[in-house]
Amino acid sequence: MEPTMEKDKKELLINLEGIFKSCEERAAHYDANNLFFQEDFEELKGAGYLLIAVPEEFGGYGMLMDECETLTRKLAYHAAPTALALNMHIYWTGLIADLYRQGDKSIQWVLEEAGRGKVFAAGHGESGNDIPVLYSTCKAEKVEGGYSFTGHKMFGSLTPVWDYLGFHGQDNSDSENPTIIHAFLPRDTQNFEIKKTWDNVMGMRATRSDDTILNDVMIQDKYIVRKVPAGFNGIDGFVLGIFSWALIGFGNIYFGLAKRVVDMVLETLHKKKSISLGRPSMAYHPGIQRDVADMVLELEAIEPHLDTIAREWSQGKAYGAAWGIKIFAAKCHAVEAAWRVVDKAMDVMGGYGISRNSGFERLFRDARLGRIHPSNTYITREVIAKGMLGLDLDYQPR
């Protein structure tokens, strides 16, 4: 007899196909009105999407990274901002589920809370911090019973609905050995405020990634989940998991968006007429055919790269320190190639593409944000080059 959870998983996947299409229908409305994707969120949560990475024993579906990223990619094809925001929750549950399966039960409460329907978001973005997670401009001070945090967090996707904000701060009490304090902020905590900063941003508007201001926020010890050295020497399994789940998620989101754009181009080309070619449509234009071929070649290279990294992470391949290079490279390759696809698509779409009614203009704006997500092009190339050259990534000055 087939296990109940396996049946539930099949039912989930069937239900999600219809919900993803509903998300697509609402995407333009959210973008035009600077609205959070509330209806998407409620439908996806109700269907069980937020439980995909939660182990079965905590009420989830127990999917590993490769399965989760397949769904992330599919959702992004229909509604990239929705997929991007929910990736923040998925990466917390995914990385902590990985640690749990490896025997680390220290943050089991996150999986328990997620199984009860609680929502987790990420607060790692900070102005002036070009290496988020590993360093912080947010001040962390040890106090009785926990830590006090003061700082300004940016890009807080899921702001309207999170129950816990996973974030970090830096304890500089020992100036020679600064420490990064990773913690979770419960929603009912005092002394923080949400600052609306996301109206009319360039793209991914439906994520409502507003700022969070921490004003001497007291976090109890039970919500302090890691204390590690600042910098690259502080990368343990927890920190590496943040990078892996977040960045591979980003890569799949922008890949899914690029796939959608190519499909739009293929459909539109047969409708674009030419007065000079004497052919049925612009699909017969040799220059446009070359551009279409280039876009497809980009997509064909992104997919196996992302799939390989997700599969090997799920299999527990022992790459050691090389995992950082592989993760950064996969994300960078995916978002830069996805942008080349979308940018070239603008040439093919022509004047029609800049119209809001085309639907492409919104996707064009969304696609550009992929390259500024951590890790951006600068830190990615620094990590890859220094890693391959055997240089100390924490050596100062950089």
Spatial strand order of the main sheet:
1-4-5-8
Rounded to an integer in angstroms, the radius of gyration calculated over CA atoms is 22 Å
| Class derived from helix and strand content | alpha+beta
Number of DSSP E strands: 8
Enzyme class: oxidoreductase
GO molecular function: oxidoreductase activity
Pfam families: Acyl-CoA_dh_1 (PF00441), Acyl-CoA_dh_N (PF02771)
Cofactor: FAD
Describe, in plain words, how this protein is organized in 3D.
The protein is an alpha+beta fold and about 400 residues long. The chain contains nine helices and eight strands. It has three domains: about 110 residues, Acyl-CoA dehydrogenase/oxidase, N-terminal domain (Butyryl-Coa Dehydrogenase, subunit A, domain 1, Orthogonal Bundle), CATH 1.10.540; about 110 residues, Butyryl-CoA Dehydrogenase, subunit A, domain 2 (Beta Barrel), CATH 2.40.110; about 160 residues, Butyryl-CoA Dehydrogenase, subunit A, domain 3, CATH 1.20.140. A four-stranded mixed β-sheet has the order 1-4-5-8. The protein is globular. The protein starts with a helix and ends in a 9-residue tail after the last helix. The model has no long low-confidence stretch (mean pLDDT about 95). Belongs to the acyl-CoA dehydrogenase family. This is Acyl-CoA dehydrogenase family protein.
